[in-house]
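tokens incoming
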């Protein structure tokens, strides 16, 4: 087995159910491999184990790894049948006969397949597990019946649960799936001698000015309270000795996110052995009084990381000590590493979110002009400087020269990851003077501006950092010297990237309201430099004496990240939010009540889990926040402001409930009911308008920016609000770009090689029609998505378009087509003489490029590009600093 994703079958449950009901044998034979195996499972402790126990699990086809042992099942469709006799009244009020009716809904199908499984190719498949990501989508992994018991028993370390036994089924399902997480690599630790388990440590009790959401008689209510809090300082974190990072070539990293059976822990790079030596520690004692040789300890962790301890009642005398000893005996010494810390794609210029910006009521036009200054300058550079735009496309000047040399040798492998226009620019830069290129440039810049209008603004020194809480106190606790005090106080953080005393606005996703905006200040402590190997991507945060975990939407330290924004405007706004918006705190308790261990109960849990409301909660929160911001700006009564803030705070708690559904059950709360109540808030306004069927309905009045960030606006009316995201739309208005020097117009046909004898192969005119039919079929599907009658949302439209293009590309790939044929086909497309071809010219170019790069690129003339202006990456002097990347403008011929 290779360390890579494995392709598995991806089947829709309703079609399986349909075949079963109709007595049809389910078979995977003679099916399209790409369509059938469209899901993947990652390289994980689970797949490693499967490969060890069942040697025939994985196989390879065309350098891709596959298995038929596991199948991903989706539950997205009802099973419907045509009823000829069904009568109904249509939109025009006429009686009609014949209608498609639901024979079995998704719930019924799920229940049937959970209880009964199914047979495919003569092999029985039954429910196996739900992965963390797949669970929230309602997907389930099924496995061949003969393997299920062995692998489940191993995942549970031999824990036995009888059928119908009462247990915390939600937790069992969540924890047994931990080993399905994808891994970067594995490490070895001896659980018997190299792990020190200490008690979780806690900060002091303190008072928090909070906006508290509680459940009362099946409803949730929110109000301000002074709440007593005490935080766990070690929730999901661990300390790993630096020698482990050195051993596995990760000395430049600060954490490893670990997995093992019923263990999830984020281990941070610590000088454990140096600390023991400095304190003359030769032996250490775990939480149960067991003595260890200190020189062998490589990992320090707590019960919060070892989920197996929750099932102590099933082991021996029921003690935690006995349970821990059992766990050490039964796990292997192979630990999976899901990830290490790394610099994000945007480095220290990370983007804000619309949720953050729109939760700060006093962000003015002038503030937003300052915040967007670099982005606005960059947009104008894209418009006015072709060298900058080509750089934006990813057209690196030195790479371009390298590509040309390979092209001369007939090697197009380096073009494989290059997009169409970029590749054509590398062949002939006159491409930039064609109408198609100019339109593409205009569309790409408009798309970039659209992203900015959605609140995705880059600012200098914005960093996503991984959180660790009070690690020095944890280190002290490992040698019995934690005395309940901390070296950190209040809203302190420590991140080595920033100077001592630097102030921040801090936020964590999902960000819901102003009570999630946190002010914090960087404070250097010598202990963090002395005993820890933190990188610039790590942030020590103080959970000791303040409500930071709640302010940051239930943050813990099992690899949670936070965005730090250094800009003074944002830090000042964070202070305002701290002063004016109490921290939202969720006190709605999810139940871990015992449930019967059977498939009917599991089906009920997964139905609840698959009904996910997080998107609707986030959208509703931004509508409420916009009304709140508008009310504050316009000086409306405190009563209105309080009602709106409590609603927004309640949504913050509701989002936490949704996120926790895979671990806890909240069947005492109806999310749909709570969201309906939000719509009845007195301040929310409606307009009476016709819907698309001509019926009069109430449409919610929402801020203008919702047209940019939501697909579901059919029953909404847009209006200008005094809210930051609507103001941002006005800030991001741009003048037209100037006409560039030497600008001229070229036709695509002019860039094609004049005669097919200059390219490989003999032109086959008989292939034109089959090529056109494939591309036209794709084009018609795409055009259908743009018709008013199409009811799909934008996301679904993109999925359909992507699938249509993929199918066309695969069909063209299967054809033997030479360069001469492609050249003459493209001449037809760009000649405008034959409309059947010309109307699909751009689509033809795209599909042929994706399917036949090697044959297509030689169809274009090589241009004289010696005098083209290009950007070269520099490390010292530069003409442009583009979000931290420094470039100098140069003439292309000077690079050779």
């Amino acid at each position: 087995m290779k360390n890579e994703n494995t392709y598995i079958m991806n089947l829709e449950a309703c079609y399986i159910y349909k075949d079963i009901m109709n007595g049809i044998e389910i078979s995977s034979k003679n099916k399209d491999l790409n369509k059938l195996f469209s899901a993947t499972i990652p390289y994980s402790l689970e797949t490693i184990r499967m490969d060890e126990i069942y040697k025939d699990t994985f196989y390879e086809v065309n350098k891709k790894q596959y298995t038929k042992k596991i199948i991903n099942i989706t539950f997205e469709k009802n099973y419907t049948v045509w009823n000829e006799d069904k009568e109904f009244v249509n939109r025009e009020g006429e009686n009609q006969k014949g209608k498609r009716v639901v024979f079995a809904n998704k719930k019924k199908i799920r229940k049937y397949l959970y209880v009964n499984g199914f047979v495919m190719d003569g092999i029985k498949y039954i429910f196996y597990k739900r992965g963390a990501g797949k669970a929230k989508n309602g997907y389930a992994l099924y496995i061949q019946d003969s393997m299920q018991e062995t692998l489940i028993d191993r995942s549970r370390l031999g824990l036995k649960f009888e059928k119908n036994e009462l247990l915390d089924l939600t937790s069992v399902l969540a924890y047994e799936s931990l080993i399905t997480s994808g891994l970067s690599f594995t490490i070895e630790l001896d659980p018997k001698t190299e792990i020190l388990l200490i008690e979780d440590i806690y900060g002091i009790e303190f008072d928090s000015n909070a906006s508290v959401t509680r459940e009362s008689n099946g409803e949730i209510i929110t109000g301000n309270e002074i709440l007593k809090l005490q935080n766990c300082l070690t929730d999901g974190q661990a300390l790993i000795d630096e020698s482990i990072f050195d051993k596995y070539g990760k000395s430049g990293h600060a954490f490893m996110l670990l997995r093992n059976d019923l263990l999830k822990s984020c281990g941070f790079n610590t000088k454990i052995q140096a600390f023991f030596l400095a304190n003359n520690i030769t032996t250490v004692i775990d939480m149960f009084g067991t003595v260890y040789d200190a020189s062998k300890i490589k990992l320090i962790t707590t019960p919060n990381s070892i989920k197996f301890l929750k099932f102590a009642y099933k082991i021996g005398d029921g003690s935690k000590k006995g349970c821990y000893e059992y766990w050490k005996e039964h796990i292997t010494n192979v630990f999976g590493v899901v990830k290490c810390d790394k610099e994000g794609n945007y480095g220290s210029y990370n983007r804000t979110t619309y949720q953050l910006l729109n939760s700060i009521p006093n962000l003015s036009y002038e503030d937003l002009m300052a915040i967007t200054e670099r982005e606005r300058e960059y947009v104008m550079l894209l418009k006015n400087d072709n060298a900058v735009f080509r750089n934006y496309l990813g057209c690196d000047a030195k790479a371009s020269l390298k590509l040309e040399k390979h092209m001369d040798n007939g090697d197009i492998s380096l073009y494989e990851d290059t997009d169409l226009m970029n590749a054509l620019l590398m062949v002939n830069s006159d491409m930039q003077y064609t109408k198609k290129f100019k339109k593409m440039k205009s569309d790409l810049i408009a798309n970039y501006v659209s992203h900015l209008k959605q609140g995705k603004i880059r600012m200098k020194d914005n960093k996503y950092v991984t959180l660790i809480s009070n690690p020095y106190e944890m280190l002290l606790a490992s040698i019995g010297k934690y005395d309940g005090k901390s070296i950190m106080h209040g809203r302190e953080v420590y991140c080595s990237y920033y100077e001592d005393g630097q102030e921040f606005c801090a936020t964590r996703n999902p960000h819901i309201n102003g009570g999630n905006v946190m002010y914090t200040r960087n404070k250097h402590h010598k202990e963090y430099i002395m005993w820890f190997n933190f990188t610039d991507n790590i942030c020590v945060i103080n959970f000791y004496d303040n409500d930071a975990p709640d302010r940051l939407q239930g943050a813990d330290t099992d690899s949670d990240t936070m965005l730090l924004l250094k800009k003074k405007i944002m830090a000042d706004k964070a202070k305002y939010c701290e002063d004016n918006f109490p921290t939202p705190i969720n006190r709605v308790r999810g139940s871990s009540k015992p449930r019967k261990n059977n498939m009917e109960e599991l089906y009920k849990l997964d139905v609840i889990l698959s009904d996910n409301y997080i998107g609707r909660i986030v959208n509703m929160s931004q509508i409420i926040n916009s009304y709140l911001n508008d009310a504050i700006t316009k000086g409306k009564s405190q009563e209105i402001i309080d009602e709106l803030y409590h609603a927004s705070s309640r949504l913050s708690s509701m989002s936490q409930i949704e996120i926790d559904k895979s671990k806890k059950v909240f069947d005492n709360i109806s999310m749909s009911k709570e969201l309906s109540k939000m719509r009845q808030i007195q301040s929310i306004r409606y307009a009476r308008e016709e819907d698309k069927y001509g019926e009069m309905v109430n449409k919610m009045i929402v801020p203008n920016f919702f047209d940019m960030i939501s697909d579901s606006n059919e029953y909404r009316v847009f209006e200008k609000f005094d809210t930051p995201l609507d103001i941002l739309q006005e800030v991001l208005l741009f003048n037209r770009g100037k006409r560039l020097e030497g600008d001229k117009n070229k036709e695509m046909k002019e860039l094609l090689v004049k005669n097919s004898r200059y390219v490989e192969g003999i032109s086959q005119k008989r292939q034109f029609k089959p090529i056109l039919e494939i591309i036209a079929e794709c084009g018609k599907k795409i055009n259908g998505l743009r018709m008013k009658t199409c009811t799909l949302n934008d996301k679904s439209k993109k999925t359909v378009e992507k699938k249509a293009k993929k199918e066309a590309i695969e069909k063209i790939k299967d054809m033997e087509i030479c360069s001469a044929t492609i050249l003459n086909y493209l001449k037809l497309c760009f000649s405008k003489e034959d409309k059947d071809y010309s109307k699909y010219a751009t689509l033809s170019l795209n599909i042929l490029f994706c399917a036949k790069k090697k044959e297509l690129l030689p169809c274009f003339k090589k241009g004289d590009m010696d005098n083209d202006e290009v950007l070269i990456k520099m490390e010292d002097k530069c003409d442009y600093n583009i979000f931290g990347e420094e470039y100098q403008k140069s003439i292309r011929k000077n690079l050779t």
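note: The first helix runs from residue 13 to 21.
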